């Protein structure tokens, strides 16, 4: 198979698409994507579809697409592992000289793909698709996303470009570097940024979902944000040294003031209100500190189990299971 592919000169482009309960959009997805991929000159393509433990008709529809077209491959995960794991599975399986992660709901317009390929051919290793604006997102989502990128980029060594999702083109070399990263808790946007390489950008306008529902609730997004922050920065842990130092410094000054005041004015008993406030405040601060440590310890614990990121139940391609 490999020899066969290298024998002819057309490079292979892999589109990696995670599907989780997307049966409402599958037909529209293939109808939109296939003409665009066919229209790219001098390229072969494959569509690596990852079924992330869907409970609706997604797998059946993907298998039908796979039966009809040898360029469609299906990787069926054993359960829902989440988008980051599904993407990892697809990227691991992709065979192309260039790999593009792509959402099933056509929020990333297929017309951008030829532009990514054109930039890749100019010699870039990574071609980022950046949203020119986020009009289709709700006000709250835009605000929280902007806040996340600002905080993340301020406290970690890597810079995640804001307004860039997972949609991008990566050369084979970038993909191989990505595969070397051993962590099993994978915040893909961060890992993409971490590997680096020469990067070009292409702007696009993100459309609304063509059908079905978003799989990311506020709580899931919050956890994704925590994952991102803890994956690439230890500042939330280290900051407690300084908070503790400041509090202790303040306490020493206050103690000195109290001693002097007692000296000058004698003992006065009242002080319940300030006492209880200080006790509760410091108790709260300490619990927050422990909570932050807990976030990291929990992650160390999960990481230390060295479980695989995902488990494949079966893979399918035309003529082969
Ligand atoms: N997805 C997945 N596993 C999950 C959640 C989502 O594979 O547990 C896929 C989903 O099918 C879609 C992509 O990830 O192809 C992006 O999901 P969605 O459109 O719901 O996210 P949003 O665009 O709202 O951020
Ligand atoms: Mg979407």
UniProtKB/TrEMBL annotation:
Q: Does the keyword Glycosyltransferase apply?
A: yes
The segment(s) forming the Glycosyltransferase 2-like domain are 14-177
Query: What residue ranges are annotated as transmembrane?
Result: 239-260, 272-297
So what EC number does this one have? 2.4.-.-
The GO terms describing molecular function are: glycosyltransferase activity
Bilayer topology reads: Multi-pass membrane protein
Location in the cell: Membrane
Its EC top class is transferase
For this protein, the record's InterPro entries field holds:
Glyco_trans_2-like, Glycosyltransferase_2, Nucleotide-diphossugar_trans
Alphabetized UniProt keyword annotations? Glycosyltransferase, Membrane, Transferase, Transmembrane, Transmembrane helix
Name this polypeptide is given: Glycosyltransferase family 2 protein
């Amino acid at each position: 198979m490999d020899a066969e592919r290298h024998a002819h000169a057309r490079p292979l482009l892999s589109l990696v698409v995670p599907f989780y309960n997307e049966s409402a959009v599958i037909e529209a997805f293939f109808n939109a994507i296939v003409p665009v991929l066919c229209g790219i000159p001098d390229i072969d393509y494959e569509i690596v579809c990852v079924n992330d433990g869907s409970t609706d008709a997604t797998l059946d529809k993907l298998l039908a697409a796979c039966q009809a077209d040898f360029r469609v491959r299906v990787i069926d995960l054993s359960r829902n592992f989440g988008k980051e794991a599904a993407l990892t599975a697809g990227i691991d399986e992709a065979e192309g000289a260039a790999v593009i992660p792509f959402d099933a709901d056509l929020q990333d317009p297929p017309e951008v793909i030829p532009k990514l390929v054109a930039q890749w051919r100019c010699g870039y290793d990574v071609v980022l698709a950046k949203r020119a604006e986020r009009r289709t997102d709700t006000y709250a989502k835009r605000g929280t996303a902007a806040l996340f990128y600002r905080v993340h980029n301020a406290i970690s060594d890597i810079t995640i470009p804001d307004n860039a999702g997972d949609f991008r083109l990566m050369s084979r070399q970038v993909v191989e570097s990505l595969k070397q990263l051993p962590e099993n808790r994978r915040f893909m946007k961060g890992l993409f940024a971490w590997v680096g390489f020469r990067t070009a950008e292409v702007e696009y306008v993100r459309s609304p979902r063509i059908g079905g529902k978003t799989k990311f609730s506020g709580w899931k997004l919050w956890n994704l944000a925590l994952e991102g922050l803890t994956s690439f920065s230890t500042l939330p842990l280290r900051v407690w040294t300084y908070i503790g130092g400041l509090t202790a410094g303040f306490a020493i000054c206050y103690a000195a003031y109290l001693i002097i005041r007692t000296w000058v004015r004698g003992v006065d008993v009242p002080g319940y209100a300030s006492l209880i406030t200080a006790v509760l405040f410091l108790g709260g601060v300490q619990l927050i500190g422990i909570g932050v440590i807990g976030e990291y310890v929990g992650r160390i614990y999960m990481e230390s189990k060295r479980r695989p990121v995902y488990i494949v139940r079966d893979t399918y391609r035309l003529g082969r299971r």
